[in-house]
Amino acid sequence: MNIDHLEAFMYVVHLESIHKAAEALYLSQPTVTARIKTLERDLGIELFLRKGRSLQLSEEGKAFIPYAEQIIRTYDQGKKLLNKEDHPEEIVIGANIITSQYFMPFALPFLKEAHPQMRFKFISAPNEVLLDKLLQKQVDIAFLKEVSHHGIQKHELLNNSVRLVVYPGHSFQFQNNLSVQQLAMEPMVFFECGAFDWNRIHKLFEVANVKPKIEFLVDHLEVAKSIILSKNGIGFLPYLCVKEELEKGNLIEIDVTHFINLNQHIYAAYLNNGIENQKLWNDILLVVKEFDKQSIDSD
Which terminus of the chain faces fewer neighbouring Cβ atoms within 10 Å, N or C? Predict the structure, then answer.
């Protein structure tokens, strides 16, 4: 049994495609197919049921997955042990754009201090790219918005709900039970990203049969935030983007949960076979607590 054949099998399982597995492994499709067929001959079973061009895991194939994962994991651990003197243990962390900008500068130095013997490699990418990199084992842990895939586990870590924020002294700061009609009359900056939550904000005004006074449409969070800080408008922004300004009092959050509640979270995701370094995972949970604690301490 060849470790390359097991790896080809697991790539096809995770990516659900021989074509994608071949791209991830920098091999041709016939080579990946040949490796899987050789593995099947070695095992004396069919790992996949072939229907035309489609592949479906057989019951034997499903049962073999944890054993293949264990063999590959043991092999990788052995390689790391043998190469430890020349190469420090490396962990690859990926994060979506907003987490990269507002959480990772706090998290990475914290993790490095807790694990001085490790080398940290960081990748910033959109959610879809991170999921692919995670499945292709190019990333060990990914921080991203909620995703669903049978090949990964995810844990809710960071609150990134969307908040209505205004500058200090704005009339909304001293007003309770703000109405959609009142909100529509104020100059607004709108972060245009096409996500479902932001479409819900548009729908809010549509249902209320009012037209919002959107003076600025921007696709960059820092630009949107700067416009609000300069008192040229108000707007809805994700919590991670405005966390520091809210703590310092440079921006004020207005409660609008009586007419819209935009909960949004950042998850830590990794492959089903888990994280080898349990202490690292515990320290990731700890750094999230320390990050959240900043806002509690400033209250």
Answer: C
Distance in angstroms (rounded) separating the CA atoms of residues 241 and 243:
6
Query: Could you tell me the CATH number of the domain that includes residue 122?
Result: 3.40.190.10
- How far is Cα 29 from Cα 46, in angstroms, rounded to an integer? 18
pTM over the 0.85 mark? no
pLDDT digits (tens, 9 = 90+) for 47-97: 999 877 778 899 999 999 999 988 988 887 787 667 655 556 889 999 999
- Spans of the chain below 70 pLDDT: 80-81, 83-88, 194-197, 295-299
Report in angstroms the alpha-carbon separations of 259 from 23, 207, 228. 47, 11, 22
Write out the DSSP string of 153-179: EEEEEEE--EEEEE-TT-GGGG-SS--
Its domain, for residue 14, covers 3-82
* Cα radius of gyration rounded to whole Å, the chain: 24
Provide the pairing of β-strand 141-144 with 265-271: antiparallel
Whether 168 and 237 map to the same domain: the answer is yes
Alpha-carbon dihedral angle through residues 59, 65, 66, 69, given to the nearest 10 degrees: 170
